[in-house]
């Protein structure tokens, strides 16, 4: 069972600010989702390897070649705040 | 209880940037430096809709490092997302490896100062992407009004090497880091430049009363930017934990940062959420399947490793274990030594000079052996002059200074400064006479049985000849003259 405390914890990890109503609502919704997914527990997975990837593809590589990326101007084009070619971010701690 | 009443338990996490040309998941250059945010593209900036593609060289280098650290290479390996919010990560997750790392179950032998060795377990080696660099607008992160981010380093390939908690002192931790660095340099997977951040090290440390089986609560130390800082931070933390325990206190499991200026470790905020990384498989990358043929191919590409090279120097040239260990600790130093040997045959004499004058000068000038102003064949030339008796060992140090300053050969400096050793008995005998006449008291002392008085007289002769007299001849002539 997901409790309101779990929702607050996950919200903090995701940097989401939730109202009291939202917390109640999401506790209910998350529980519904998990309950639905619990259906999978009925399957016997004794001899099944855990899935690492849904597609049956392995070893996709590229060779080690460097190419120019984008310009500093292009990199910063969507930045809400910038300074001297850097991304500027709010106070961290 | 005093510090010695606790057993110290240390494990290290070493991060090393791999020497690829391009980043791990995109084609941006890994070159160090460069103007901020110029080695970036939509993939490493974490823009929506992009897909990472794994650089094959990263896998090969990680396998190479894993094999050199005596690990078993995984037949099946995958990447995972490690989720946390910090502005040096544009995606809010780092692509890393969680439960299926590329290599596990290794071990290396470390060399301690008393000449003994110890086996340290290597838990795992995994691949991941490096994060960006932060510049704080203020003296420290907490005093800063805001910070600025450079993503050039984001996506540079890293391997993280995690040790078992097998080290029992700061000295062992340093020896372990020394050996890991040597192995990574020998295998040429990393530059291992601590000052450029291509080799970084975090330490987990705890104390427990001797005889106790369970580990004590550990702290994780970060921000040690040199070997010296690692040792100092561990020493400080041992004292700190011991005094907390002595007062009946309890160690809090937390991350502490080393403050180089103040020489202390400081608690970073210990939010319990900080370590809730919620790893899950990276859906944008497919798993790696590594067959035995691939492992064998990488194993065959391994060069001679530090331990083998050390054994070879001991076996082939009869060098003491300690000397061989010092010389092979750096591949470049070992190459320098081998080059000297091509021009001078006495390995022990070369070892003495390399470990003595040469390392002393390199350390004093904060230079790497690759920046050494004295070429190996020139050092060999100097040693040949001593062997031939052209100069004394004492004068050789003066000549060495000259070679260091000017880069000239020993022959040239000896010739220019007139430093050829005087071995002519006639010339030395005249000076011996002169010194004996001028110092009757010392002669008296010697004859009264004070053997040491002869040392003073030898010194006087050397002074008269500006150190150029052959000491063997001086001793012999003085003895003959006094015992007459």
Secondary structure layout plus pairing:
The complex is a heterodimer of chains A (93) and B (484).
Chain A (H helix, E strand, L loop, with lengths): L3 H10 L6 H18 L23 E2 L9 H5 L5 E2 L2 E5 L3
Antiparallel strand pairs in A: 2-3
Chain B lengths: L5 E12 L36 E2 H13 L3 E2 L2 E2 L2 E4 L9 E4 L6 E9 L5 E13 L3 E4 L9 E5 L6 E7 L6 H17 L12 E11 L9 E6 L2 H20 L8 E5 L4 E4 L12 E2 L6 E2 L2 H9 L5 H12 L3 H8 L2 H11 L5 H18 L11 H13 L4 H14 L3 H8 L7 H14 L1 H8 L5 H12 L6 H12 L2
Parallel strand pairs in B: 13-14
Antiparallel strand pairs in B: 1-11, 1-12, 3-7, 4-17, 5-6, 5-16, 7-8, 8-11, 9-10, 12-13, 14-15
Helix pairs in contact in B: 2-3, 5-6, 6-8, 7-9, 9-10, 12-14, 12-15, 13-14, 14-15
Largest sheet features of chain B: 9 strands, mixed
State the shape of chain A: flat
SSE ordering of chain A: HHEHEE
Judged by helices, strands and strand pairing, the structural class of chain B is: alpha+beta
Low-confidence stretches of chain B: none
Tell the overall outline of chain B: elongated
Share of helix of chain B, binned: 25-40%
